């Protein structure tokens, strides 16, 4: 009887240990998914601000139609890439495409802001100033959200790669998540040149 109780205690300890590892993996996965959702919220805010910014600039920058159209095209491409990810950060190709689209959007916005420096009336426009300030704040929030997401992904990926978590990750199909990294496009790494 004592041998059966000891055997039962060992089995229960192993079960609780396994459940603990599984729950820890689920917790890490949910944490990185939540972090990705926070990025998504900020990106949607950014996407909503851009058309207002372009409309405000249109009246002043009549000769910069190509730049304004490039911003809108980059925005639409970023919205499409974000939709393809659909909150699934384990789809490496979709996450990389989203990161590249976001980089292209940032580059086109940088060009827009650099060009707006040549239009003093546009710089002084209250709507433009407010939109620029909101967009700058949103860009900062996106940066912080990306950092939090990458930290969560690193923690999750480490948990599914380390023993004994790797056994449970393989058994229950926990897939590695993709980090958001800077893209390799040279124009995204260059500082925007502003001349007065």
Automatic annotation (TrEMBL):
- Keyword Methyltransferase assigned to the entry: answer is no
Which Pfam family, an example, fits this chain? Answer: LemA
Protein topology in the membrane: Single-pass membrane protein
InterPro entries registered for this protein in UniProt: LemA-like_dom_sf (IPR023353), MamQ_LemA (IPR007156)
Highest rank taxon of the organism: Bacteria
PANTHER family, per the entry: MEMBRANE PROTEIN, PROTEIN LEMA
Q: Where in the cell is it found?
A: Membrane
In the record, the note on similarity to other proteins reads: Belongs to the LemA family.
Alphabetically ordered keywords of this record: Membrane, Transmembrane, Transmembrane helix
Show the stretches that span the lipid bilayer.
Answer: 6-25
**Main location, first listed in the record:** membrane
Q: What is the name attached to this protein's record?
A: LemA family protein
